[in-house]
From TrEMBL:
Residues 52-352 form the Acyltransferase domain. Residues 1-47, 380-406 are annotated as: Disordered. This is Acyltransferase family protein. The keyword Transmembrane helix applies. It comes from Streptomyces hyaluromycini. One of its GO terms (molecular function) is acyltransferase activity. InterPro entries: Acyl_transf_3_dom, Nod_factor_acetyltransferase. Residues 9-20 have a biased composition (Polar residues). Residues 380-396 have a biased composition (Basic and acidic residues). The lineage of its organism: Bacteria, Bacillati, Actinomycetota, Actinomycetes, Kitasatosporales.
Length: 406
């Protein structure tokens, strides 16, 4: 794969809609009539076009995240569930992070993007870190648990990581070989047990290569994955991966795919860390490619839900945590095949509902706050009609690209 020095990061104005770069047949090149103005375009700039492929990918990845959490209480009862759990954890977050990196390519620390980073990442992190701490005081019977914004709790680690990764994007733009450097950092992080829990830095560093890989990808790379030959080749690869996952249950620990511990914390010699970092990166990359190859590129019934994956991600954790005091897993039948199937279906339905527009409208004030009062007038906002803002078009395009990672 040619990274072209991450040339897609500098001066690029492409949006996520250009996945299929092949030219259209001559008969299909007739100019299309201009779109009629609708409610979203009258009196303002046209609404950003969203690529169905990436919305589908984000929705399916977030469903796998919720299903994985639903399987956690069932791991000790079934080798099959544990194998599926290991298989899913090998690629679902890497795939989600790669897509997040892809949509962060144009982040350049301009006022508009810093403002979006604060309102779309920092504010939800603070709110949900406090909310999860208060909630787990009840669900985990830990009334003395302290609120700490430096020690991410449960799902909030991803927001802390996304904040750090995006802030460092301009650095990766300058490097000649960003992915090898990111891999070296991840390998070194796995050696150290003294990194600490601040902002879950161990996991931030070990997952860093996936984000940097997303920064280096271009639309044509995703176009290659969507070829029929790649989709067919993914079938035996996934079959072999499932067989290896089943074999590995009594031999290898799935905690390597969590990327939150050093080698010594996992009870193995330190040199295992760099070796397993490379091994898991290769494994996760192949499986993530298989997953992305199977994602449909057309609009489906769940395509619109891809715009609300952050809602589903952050909100489903309350349901997963509430299952403990509610004793949902107490019945004996829940620890058999029927219970695993039930947990899978319930998790998929719950996270789907949490991505729907009604839920997004209810929680938009905290997930996507405007916070006009917190910023200086004219700083980090799009130019209005009649204002002399030379960067107006560039900022509008940046807002469209960034909105895809939400």
């Amino acid at each position: 794969m040619s990274y072209e020095r991450c040339s897609g990061l500098s001066g690029s104005r492409e949006t996520a809609t250009a996945v299929d770069t092949s030219p259209a047949p001559a008969a299909d090149r007739t100019p299309a009539p201009p779109p009629r103005p609708g409610p979203a375009t009258r009196g303002g700039p046209p609404a950003a076009r969203r690529d169905a492929y990436f919305d589908n990918a984000k929705y399916l990845a977030i469903v796998l995240v919720a299903v994985g959490h639903a399987w956690e209480p069932l791991r000790s009862d079934s080798r099959t569930v544990t194998a599926l759990y290991t298989f899913v954890y090998a690629f679902h977050m890497p795939a989600f992070i790669v897509v997040s990196g892809y949509f962060s390519r144009t982040f350049d620390a301009s006022p508009a993007r810093i403002r979006r980073l604060v309102t779309g990442v920092v504010v939800p992190y603070v709110v949900f870190e406090v909310a999860y701490t208060l909630f787990t005081r009840w669900s985990d019977h830990a009334p003395d648990r302290e609120i700490s914004l430096l020690d991410p709790l449960y799902l909030t680690w991803f927001l802390a990581a996304l904040f750090i990764w995006r802030l460092t994007t301009p650095v990766w733009r300058l490097l000649r070989w960003p992915l090898p450097v990111a891999l070296a950092i991840a390998m070194l992080a796995s050696l150290s047990s003294s990194i600490g829990n601040d902002l879950d830095l161990q996991r931030v560093l070990q997952f860093l290569p996936y984000f940097v890989l997303g920064l280096c990808l271009r639309p044509e790379h995703f176009g290659l994955l969507r070829r029929r030959s790649v989709r067919v080749a993914a079938v035996p690869v996934v079959g072999c991966a499932l067989a290896v996952a089943y074999w590995s249950v009594p031999h290898l620990g799935y905690r390597w795919f969590f990327h939150r511990d050093s080698a010594e914390q996992l009870g193995v010699p330190a040199w295992y860390g760099p070796v397993m970092t490379l091994a898991t990166f290769g494994c996760s990359l192949v499986l993530a490619a298989c997953f992305l190859a199977w994602v449909p590129g057309r609009r489906t019934w769940f395509t619109a839900l891809g715009a609300g994956t952050l809602y589903g991600y952050l909100l489903h954790g309350f349901v997963a945590q509430g299952a403990k005091p509610a004793h949902w897993y107490a019945p004996a039948w829940m620890h058999g095949p029927l219970g695993a199937l039930t947990a899978t279906l319930v998790a998929a339905v719950v996270v789907t509902l949490l991505c729907t527009p009604p839920v997004r409208r209810v929680f938009r004030w905290v997930m996507e706050p405007r916070m006009e009062w917190a910023f200086r007038a004219g700083e980090g906002r799009p130019a209005r009609a009649g204002e002399d803002r030379p960067a107006q078009d560039g900022r509008r395009n940046a807002a469209r690209v960034l909105s895809g990672s939400r």
